[in-house]
Amino acid sequence: MQSLTKSHPGTPSRVLIFLLTVLLSACASIQKSPEINPDASAPASPRTTWIPSDTKPANRSLDDLLSLPPRHHEETSAEDLPSPENAPRLLEKLDESIPPSTSTSPLDLPQLIDVALEKNPQTRAAWQRSRVAAAQLGESMSDYYPDLSFEGVGGYSKSAMPFPDGTAVYEGADIIPQLEITYILLDFGRRTASAESARRRLAAANFSFNRELQRVIYQVESSFYEYDAARALEEAAGLNLQLALSVLDDVDRRLELGLATRPDLLLAKQVEAQAIYDLESAKVTVFNARSKLALAMGLPANSELHVVSLFDQPLPAELETRVESMIDLALGTRPDLQAQVARLRASEAELKKAKAAFFPTIGVEGAYGGQWGDYRLYGAGVGAPGINTEQRRHGITSVYNAQLVISWPLFEGFSRKNRVRQARANQQEQKEILRAIELEATNEVWSVYNDYQASTRRYEYGVALLEASQEAYEATRESYDNGLRTIDDLLRAERDLSSARYTLIGSRAELLSTAARLGFALGSMTVSPEPPRQP
Asked: Burial, 440: exposed, middle or buried (Cβ in 10 Å; 0-12, 13-18, 19+)?
């Protein structure tokens, strides 16, 4: 009979080559694994750019194959992550977050603050940190409740049981499902200290959230005043350019009539060129200030924002409170100080917890369940002669236990003593940080208070300076037209008027910004809570 198989020359060598290729590939993969070669995951050299790998990590256990997929809202979509492919869509999404505003209906400062509190990622991140601390407090309270768990054990076993007459062998399958419960009756303050520490850290996170709100409000106010001042400076630069052009036309006409010289014309052109330069510089300042305001609001830098004018903002009132009273107010109300006090209290609770570790814990443990078995007994010494060692037996019975447990570690290599030292040092550290924040707050209030007083005086000086410069320019222009003043006098009066305009705008913006900085230093900025939502 003819054979149904046919041997091909070279088949063993091909199989050998295939196996070697697979083996080399596996070796190469192992060489790149982080546990064998961790340096393969780092940059190749100090001057080489690291490029992330697109290779997914290999499955290492059954968990990698059987793990449940995350819910759609628990995993950030790749479309929401920055990349060249997602850039257009992300920009469109950012543009959609820009509040609508026009030149006829500009946004005022409260509206800008509302947008910032909603859009700024810093406030949203601080809010999530508070929620994390709240969840940690809930986790710490779980120690006051009993632990209930289910445990099921099943399998096949073979064991020997010695008897006086010989050795019996047990061979069979067992399934033991049971509920287990444990509860701590007394732990000498561990649970109380843990809950107190978590409660204080939650308070610190909440106070830090309040301070972050104040910081965003202050940044928006400061950026708003800076942006409006830049716009006012641009407008003043435009007026200065118109003034320079007017003087240039006047000098040009007088030159044609023989009443001015060519150097006079060149001086007027010099002033015109300086005015054009100042105007272009002011436009750049406006663009940068608008980008800074958009960033403080959590918006893209190219946001088109229409806001009210600087001179539409009411001026703050004069301070009638003594600086010592303001310092006392800041030390009592600033959220960053209150947050640090909460951290200090948390460290004190951690110290109590470390000391409580020297004492035992007393609790109860219990379990209730059943045991099902299918087994066979054989061998010498099994028991009564009537037992059939070849017959398999099965049955089910209940199993339970309850016991009082006292756990008291007597020696752990001085770890508990060092934990106490660590907790005590951490407490002293938090205390010194509190003192540093108190000194910083005192110095900040003192400095801003004096800046506010000086800003008020500078603004009053700016108003008087502009009025005097305007009158001086008009008088000089009239005298120049009548031939009683030179072009140098007119240009000097023009420069003084331009400088006075800039001075008034800068002093007004400085006064408003210093008032905002004083509110931030005092910690008196608050946001009213939202009304409860209707279900």
From this structure: middle
**pLDDT score of 481:** 81
Backbone phi and psi for residue 373, each to the nearest 5 degrees, phi listed first:
-140, 150
- Summarised one tens digit per residue, pLDDT across range 224-283 is 999 988 988 898 889 889 888 888 888 888 888 777 788 888 888 888 898 899 899 999
Mean pLDDT of 53-75: 64
Q: According to the 3-state scheme, what is the secondary structure of 423-478?
A: HHHHHHHHHHHHHHHHHHHHHHHHHHHHHHHHHHHHHHHHHHHHHHHHHHHHHHHH
- Which strands, in side-by-side order, build the sheet including 147-163? 147-163, 166-186, 361-379, 393-407
Residue 40 has φ and ψ, to the nearest 5°, of -65, -20
Q: Which range is least confidently modeled, 85-99, 122-136, 445-459? A: 85-99
CA gap 134, 137 in Å, rounded: 5
SS3 at position 13? helix
Quote the radius of gyration of the chain (alpha carbons, Å). 41
What pLDDT is recorded for position 450? 92
- Please give the structure tokens belonging to residue 520: 């931030």
| Average pLDDT of span 172-199 | 92
- Given a contact cutoff of 8 angstroms between Cβ atoms, the answer to whether 327 and 524 are in contact is no
CA 32, 37, 39 angle in degrees (round to 5)? 100
Q: Going by C-beta distance under 8 Å and a sequence separation of 6 or more, which residues neighbour residue 489? A: 476, 479, 480
- Render pLDDT for 438-458 as a digit per residue (tens, 0 to 9): 999 999 999 999 999 999 999
Residue 373 pLDDT grade (very low, low, confident, very high; cuts 50, 70, 90): confident
Six-digit token string for 341: 């006090």
In the three-class reduction of DSSP (H, G, I as helix; E, B as strand; rest coil), residue 138 is classed as: helix
Give the strand pairing for 166-186 and 147-163: antiparallel
Q: Are 523 and 214 in contact (CB under 8 A)?
A: yes
CA–CA separation, 129 and 202 (whole Å):
9
Cα gap 238→236, rounded to integer Å: 5
